[in-house]
Amino acid sequence: MKEPVEMRQDRVAAPAGQAPIATAVATRSAVIPYGYKARQMVWLAIAVVDIFLALRFVLLAAGAGLSGFTTIVDTVGGALAWPFQGVFGVTSASGHPLQWVDLLAIAVYTVAAWIVAKLVMIAAVPRDRSAPVY
Questions:
Q1: Would you say the C-alpha torsion 89, 103, 76, 115 has a positive or negative sign?
Q2: Domain extents for the chain?
Q3: Containing H/E element for 56?
Q4: Which of residues 129 and 46 earns the better pLDDT score?
Q5: Rounded CA gap, 99 and 62, in Å?
């Protein structure tokens, strides 16, 4: 994702004792690419989704008990992984379940977010082709 670009334009006055050629001017502006904030929101949302799924995978693999935090993580992560249930079986390591479906959901959601971010970038390009594209 392209980051905002800072553009500067500096002009320096002539040395002392000489006739001024130009006055000292310093301007600064930030150029934000089209659709930048929308793409940031897409990546923020997928980061939250991936964190819930990864935490669920780790907590179940570690055999964490069902307390307040782990119940929330298991409920939200389970709802996010639900469309992929049945793709992989559940294996166990040291008696704790490994939910491989969580890792599949992370991969699928991340690829989907990448596609959505690209579509936002494509849709945000101005129709006026003479305008600069950042």
A1: negative
A2: 34-124
A3: helix 36-62
A4: 46
A5: 11
Q: Two tokens at 27?
A: 């301007």
- Per-residue model confidence as pLDDT tens digits over 30-86: 667 778 888 999 999 999 999 999 999 999 888 888 888 999 999 999 999 999 988
C-alpha distance across the termini of the chain, in Å: 11
Contact 81, 52 (CB under 8 A): no
Give the contacts of 14 (CB within 8 A, at least 6 positions apart): 20, 21, 22
Side chain identity at 63, as an amino acid letter?
G
Q: Render the burial of 99-125: b for 16+ CB within 10 Å, e for the rest.
A: bbbbbbbbeebbeebeebbeebbeeee
Q: Are 31 and 5 in contact (CB under 8 A)?
A: yes
Question: Mean pLDDT for the chain?
Answer: 80
CA distance 39 to 37: 5
